[in-house]
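The records we work with from here on pair a chain with its fold. Taken together, the tokens spell out the fold as the letters spell out the chain. The record below shows the convention in full.
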Amino acid sequence: MGKNGALAKNNPARLERDLTIAAERLKGKTYRELSEQFGLAKSTLHHILNDDEIRDVIETGTREMVGLVPKAVGNYQDLLGSSDEKIRLQASKDCLQTTGVMPSHTQPSVIVNVLNQHVNPAQTKELEEIKAFLQHQWKDIIGEEKKGNEIDTD
């Protein structure tokens, strides 16, 4: 053991704990939640999560999660095509809320990013239709006209 009862860097128990912390962080836990779960100060967690080895574990896990996005989208598509009306409705609401298309009082970053895309010849017709729909929705919500595809994010 190191100072103040801390686990030594080469202690297998420390590596196991740090990997568990990394796994919980990948699941979306906040520093506060991790602090409560592991009984560690947020500054200690910051030090652990910024260790080169642990950061590599988190980056690898993040890449793997991003790789699963197409499968998750496929699952949403399946739910949207369900024969059960309640499942279709809930999936529709979840999709619209998650992407920020369902109106709210603030402009979600997803919407701002889509609307602020400059016209690119490679853009699909579907993206242009989505942009037009979103511009109409946000114009109604914020009550003002915007030039072209630009939405003020200030």
